[in-house]
């Protein structure tokens, strides 16, 4: 089944210096979606010099995304 809308859900959990990030992408993501993600992740992990990341991507309903401008 193809999604008729798009959404991006982000969850960030932290325990000491380890971060667990989960992403669920539905539909076709826009450039604005990607521009939103980057500062959120950077702000979350910038306090650690060498953060440890565990990442789970749920792309079972992901249809792709727009290309980033060069």
Automatic annotation (TrEMBL):
UniProt xrefs under Pfam families: SpoIIAA-like (PF11964)
Name this polypeptide is given: STAS/SEC14 domain-containing protein
Organism: Colwellia maritima
The organism's taxonomic lineage, starting at the top: Bacteria, Pseudomonadati, Pseudomonadota, Gammaproteobacteria, Alteromonadales
InterPro entries: SpoIIAA-like, SpoIIAA-like_sf, STAS_dom_sf
Superkingdom to which the source organism belongs: Bacteria
